[in-house]
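Fig. S4 source data, part A: sequence.
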Amino acid sequence: MSNAIQVKVEELNALPATKIVENKKVEAKFIQMYNAIWGSQMGEQIYNKEVFNFQKVLRENPGVAECSKMSLYGCFLDMAVNGLSLDNTSHAQCYLIPRKVKTGYKNDKGYDEYEKRANVSVTGYGELFMRMRSGQIRYADNPVVVYEGDIFAIGLDNGVKRITYSAAIPRKSSKVIGAFIRIIRMDSSEDYQWLLEGDIQRLAKYSENSNSYWKDGHKIEGKANALYSSANGGIDPGFLENKMIKHAFDAYQKVRTGQYTIMETTEEEPVIDYGIAEEIPNRDQIESKPAPFGPTDEPEPEAVAAPVTQADEEEGF
C-alpha cells in the first residue's frame, strides 16, 4: 500500500477527538485503504457513513473520547481494514472501548504509568459476518439457548458431531444451562459448536481476571461482567448468544483484523501502513505513543456506559 499519505502525530494531537476523522489526510487515507483492501470504489461512501458513526460514539461515550488521539485514529482506520461498521444496530458488528495500557514509563513512586487507549471490539455478529465474507463458512443459524428441562444431548456419529435438542414448552425453568449453534461449511457439511455450564463459568472467571488491574503496586480484583448473572441468577440469554457465536470459531482459521482491533482470533498479517510519520515521542508527548499490535495489556477498570453487548467486549478476547 502506498506510503504517500502521511499523518503526523502532532497533527492528530492538535485536533479535538471528534474532528480527527474530518482531517483531509485521514479522509484520504481511509478511502485509499478501503478501496485497496476490498477492491472497490466504495471508500468515499463508507468513509462518510463511518464518520457519522464514529463521532456519534465519541459524543455518547466520554470515556472513549478521552482516549489517546493516536488510538482513535487507528480505530477509525480499522473500520476500513475490517470492513465492519460502528452502526449501532440490534446486531452491532463492533464497538469502541477504552483500555488502560502501560506507557513504558514509571511515576515518581516507581510504579508503571498508564494511558487510556481505544480499541475496536468485534462482536460475535461482526465476526460471523467477517467469516462469511472471507469464504470460511456459508451460513450459521442463530444460536439456540438451552434451558433447564430441555432435551439436550451431544454425540458423535462416525466422527461427525450431532445435537439432539427439544425445547420444553412451556418452559420448566428459566435457568440457562448452555447454548449451541449450527454452522454450514462451504461444502454444505454441518458443524455444531456449544457452550455448557462449565464453559460459562470459565468465561466468567476470565472476565474477572480481565477486569482486574494494578494501582500503586496493588492488584485490584475485577468483577465478572454483570451479564453473567443478570437473568434469574444465570447468564443473560442475549449475552450468551453473542458469546456462542464468538466461541464457535475457536478451531477455524483466523481472519484479518486491524492493529487496533480485539477479537477472539487475530490473524498474523503483514503490518498495514497507517500513514503515521515515525517520530520518537518524549515524556511530554506520551499521548502520541503508538498502541501495540493486538490486545492491550490492561483493561479499563470502570465500566463503559454503552449498549449491553458492549460490556461483553471488556473481556479482551
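Fig. S4 source data, part B ends here. The longest helix spans residues 43-60.
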